[in-house]
Amino acid sequence: MTVVSVDKDVEALSLTVVAEFDADVKRVWRIWEDPRQLERWWGPPNYPATFETYEFTAGGKAAYYMTTPEGEKPRGWWKFTAINAPDRLEFDDGFADEQGAPMDEYGVSHAVVKLEPIGERTRMTIVSNFESEQQLQQMSEMGMEEGLREAIGQIDALLAEPANA
Question: What residue spans define the domains of the chain?
């Protein structure tokens, strides 16, 4: 399995996922930079993502939905707060209504993604920070940990393809 560890830290209001891949940092960066590649892994296998907007620049926004097995389309949004190619990006993350407007009821989390070389491999660390213990618990109950584990588990197959695939 690609995921090395998942750590929920209630005191720090964070969820940290560490994964390692048989590809260099620049190749792993492409799965974040290219929305078509991101769509192939950003949801668990039975919840594929579709990015309708993807402005991969600091201050840029992303809007997406995941299609459930029942055909429902829960929506989400990101606002990129920092991008330092090819090894770090940060974004605010939240749920959206059917029109794509942010929904306040689930709050906003902030994700920091770091890519670092370990020999010819890459370690990817994703740290999601939450506004409150209640929000962290709510996301856990909604399956965030397992969903991330399953989504990241799809990356190896994608990385085995040419970078421009």
Answer: 3-111+125-159
Q: Report how far residue 130's alpha carbon sits from residue 104's, in angstroms, rounded to the nearest whole number.
A: 13
pLDDT at 15 over 70: yes
pLDDT (tens digit per residue) in 21-41: 999 999 999 999 999 999 999
Q: Which CATH class is domain 3-111+125-159?
A: alpha beta
Query: 3-state DSSP call for residue 142?
Result: coil
Is 0.85 topped by the overall pTM?
yes
Angle between helices 133-141 and 144-152 (to 10 degrees): 60
3 state DSSP class of 159 = helix
Q: Under a CB-based contact definition with an 8 Å cutoff, are residues 155 and 19 in contact?
A: yes
